[in-house]
Design a protein that fits this description.
The protein has helices at about 5-15, 35-40, 90-100, 105-115, 135-140, 145-160, 180-185, 200, 215-230; strands at about 80-85, 130, 160, 165-170, 190-195, 205-215, 235-240. It is of the alpha/beta class. About 40% of the residues are buried. Bound molecules: zinc ion (2 copies).
């Protein structure tokens, strides 16, 4: 069965069954929420100590001056990465449901968690929100780009303007199941400026929004293009991040 058909069927099922939590499947009170209170309290931010720049947990007892291996290869202008939750249950289930499960209605909940950590990222009220794009064919399959849904919701909550400043080439394949070096190679030339939006980016502090940060290869590649377009700096905001060394 083709992917869009599966997503449509899942959506239809959501509409006819009693509402259930997208994280654990428990029945929900019908209050418009999509995630139960228990799953919400289980979401946790990356634990301390963590890299000041990318928030990768660093383990205890490491010299503070030792360079962080997670962000050492990032372009200099990619100044920060923040994530609302570690990619572990139930955050991983929510990410999967938004991306593949035909649950775009999870975006407001996830964006709310992202918006909560935004004040810690920048004092700027003039950030330009840019979603990490997906390819035209993948967006057609899913019916939406999950990063664009999150960007729209974060932008709305924070009163920030949004620009679809990047486009993503077809090809390159999915990042899933690739290791760190392979991911970097796979994604290096994946992005280019969206011609209609190049003027948006010059001189701006950009907030690049995605659902998940895994190795940071996607953020580094997209960030580099934004910096080449004249962005003053780029920060990355995702709903979840994989722990270093986690191959997922
Ligand atoms: Zn739940
Ligand atoms: Zn780091």
């Amino acid at each position: 069965m083709r992917e869009p058909t599966v997503a449509l069927l899942r959506r239809a099922v959501h509409l006819v069954l009693p509402p259930a939590c997208a994280g654990c499947g428990e029945a929900l009170e019908f209050d418009g929420g999509r995630v139960c209170a228990r799953c919400t309290t289980r979401l946790r931010e990356p634990p301390h100590p963590r890299c000041a720049r990318c928030h990768a947990p660093r383990g205890t007892g490491l010299p503070a001056a030792r360079p962080c291996p997670e962000c050492a290869d990032w372009p200099e202008g990619l100044i920060a990465a923040r994530s609302a939750a570690i990619l572990e249950p139930p955050a991983d289930t929510l990410v999967y449901a938004l991306k593949y499960g035909g649950w775009p209605e999870l975006a407001p909940f996830m964006a709310e968690r992202m918006h909560r950590i935004l004040p810690g990222m920048s004092s700027s009220r003039t950030l330009l929100v840019v979603p990490v794009p997906t390819t035209v064919s993948r967006e057609r399959e899913r019916g939406y780009n999950q990063a664009a849904l999150l960007a729209r919701e974060v932008g709305r909550r924070a009163g920030l303007s949004i620009s679809p400043a990047l486009v993503r080439h077809e090809g390159g394949g999915t990042q899933v199941s690739l290791h760190r070096r392979e991911r970097a190679d796979n994604v290096r030339d994946a992005f280019q400026p969206a011609l209609a939006a190049t003027a948006d980016v010059g001189g701006r502090e950009v907030l690049l929004v995605d659902d998940v940060l895994t190795t940071g290869a996607t953020a580094a590649a997209a960030g580099l293009v934004l910096l080449e377009m004249g962005a003053k700096s780029v920060s990355v905001l995702t709903f979840a991040r994989a722990l270093p060394g986690d191959p997922t």
